[in-house]
Please model this.
Amino acid sequence: MPFLVTILTRFSLSCLSFLMKLRLALFLLLLSGAASAQDSLFARKLVDTLTSPYFWGRGYTNDGMGKATRFISAQFKDYGLRPLDGKDFVQPFNFNVNTFPGAMDIALNGKQLVPGKDFVIGAGSKGVKGTGKLFKKDSIHYVDLQNRVLVTLHDKLTWDVDQDVTDFTEVDLLKSALKDQPSSIDIDVENKLVEGFKTGNVCGIVRGVAKPDSFIVMTAHYDHLGGMGTKTFFPGANDNASGVSQLLSLARYYSQHPQPYSMVFICFSGEEAGLLGSKYFSENPLIPLNHIRFLMNIDMLGTGEEGITAVNATVFPKEFALLKQANDDGHYLVKIASRGKAPNSDHYWFSEKGVPAFFIYTMGGIKAYHDVYDISKTLPLNEYNHLFRLLVDFNSSLMNVKTVYANKN
Model:
């Protein structure tokens, strides 16, 4: 009988232990899901905010870029980051830019066109007001000689930013906007060249606890194209509210989990005008460039079902191996594609000065780019949490420490 009691007691304790472990596992799983949901909600809120009409495309009219500068600075302060120069989060600089603050009215063959959807104005165009006849130059070009207007047909519309003004006006027209060949134009477009447009890079730091003079740098440009006239703006959800959102998530995380190295966060301005903010910082650095262990530039991170691409992967193969290993260990993304050197984002000026740097962007999903359809509502952010954890793990491997972030699910 005592033997039977002993067996039953051990069996009961074993069952109790199993149930406790099961409950703990379920609790951690629920906690993990809650954390992921919270991270996703945080990201969505940031992208919604940065793409709202209030920020007007984070550009050059309606103080769009200025509002974004102040917003990001306030976020850094709220998270507990310190200004990189010890005084102010903003590193000011300026440049010339052509803007379109007023009239944006065009009719072709008597049909009124919708700015952004039917047409965009060439970024370097001068303002013009008049009526004229259009003459066919070739299969996609039509010219109004009297008013110096060039109409170009396109299958898809994309806009840009220019620092200069040409001596003519270009109208990029969506082919499907008209059924008949363009023959007449009524146009009223206002431009304004802003000389010395004032802006700045937003720079913050979380000081390292062991090697504060060694730096891991995370960067993302916060500017976009701004507005074209008084009714049309370009939200820039994927490009690059998504990258800014991820950077702010990392800044918030590292402010709560200081690392051996100092963690630096820079939101560049003027990227769309020619990588101007990153060029200015690389020439006027607020930290010694040769003390940067690695710089990770993040841009267009709103999708990811086909993985990510790492620019400069072939230039820095050891770091690329660490990135791939972190991804394999965490089972995060389906693919990390390798790409060579390219001057296509803000990493460029740094790697040109010998700073090891990657530029990563997501692949797959929506194709909206530099148009009015790059909006928060259709941006999936489906790999946001996996990207966050991948970057945390990669940074840890660069510092040769174990990742503090425990949520791997």
